[in-house]
Amino acid sequence: MLPINRQAKVVHNCQSGNVPDDIHTYEEPVILKGLVDHWELVKIGLESDSKTAEYLKSFYNGKPTLTYFGEPGLDGRYGYNETATDLNFKKEKAQLDQVIDLIITHLNDETPPSLYIASNVIDLNFPGLRKNNDLDMSFATRNPNSEPPIPSIWIGNKSIARCHYDASDNIACVVKGRRRFIMFPPDQIENLYPGPLSPTPGGQAITMVDLHNPDYQQFPKFKQAAEKGMIAELEPGDGIFIPSMWWHQVEGLNNFNILVNYWWSNAERFMGSAMNVLHHAMLSLRDKPAHEKAAWKHVFDYYIFNNESLPTQHLPVASQGLLSPMDELKSRQLRAMLINKLNR
């Protein structure tokens, strides 16, 4: 039984297709009720499974893409094998129209194979689909130098995308089938017992805890995470905003589920991935003696995590160099310096 009772806040006055203007001020997930209930795909999805499949396939351009395949009995619980040394499903390139047909073929099976088209960039495989099925994301381009949101589609039968985090802000739109989101704030990472950094189903580590049947003997601190967790139950046409770095488990509850999501960040596009910093810190810092790591923690607080103007407020502007705000030129110089140092 799921040991979480707190429900996510619901914004009921959403106008179809319009994200609330103050979405960037929300510090925790919120349900955006009826956000995409005007989409053609949502309406067709409420009519018929077969019509939904045919509608999707009418936009498919024939390019194969990576798909998850799980044996019957997996029940869409994508994750690790028993030793966490490999995944419990296969990733293979496939024709998406054939995968959609398989979902329809096995709709009424008691133990169907698990099928999942994950994070498929819509314009790469379903050109034209966005014409009547898209969200106005102009609010997310407040910084003209940031990467624009790129909508992706997720198609499958019953599925559980185990609890993980994403580095970007996210709006996920439930198109077909019901979805359950189970979410935790970023500071609960220790209490969620992340698995290996590799392999992973989608790039980020996933929790080792079965959220519906937690083993408190093996994962005792999950009780603290459960106290901070929240649940969101979404119907077709609903959306949800999930802030960057919030842990979330996404569950497709029906035999045919479709979701469209938009990731975005207002960071400058020349910024590197923070995951690269983590990997570099593992290489250069994690296994240092304890007293050295303690000292470096102060250094990182001073240069990175405290007031960004602190390291420069006593320096002449001409001398600030890399300490001044990052721009594209400095980012190129810094990348070149790092590559040169790492190649030695």
Automatic annotation (TrEMBL):
Protein name: Cupin-like domain-containing protein
Coiled coil stretches, renumbered: none
Pfam family, one: Cupin_8
SUPFAM superfamilies named in the record: Clavaminate synthase-like
PANTHER family, per the entry: HYPOXIA-INDUCIBLE FACTOR 1 ALPHA INHIBITOR-RELATED, HYPOXIA-INDUCIBLE FACTOR 1-ALPHA INHIBITOR
Domain (JmjC): residue spans on this chain: 115-279
Organism: Alteromonas gilva
SMART domains (UniProt xref): JmjC
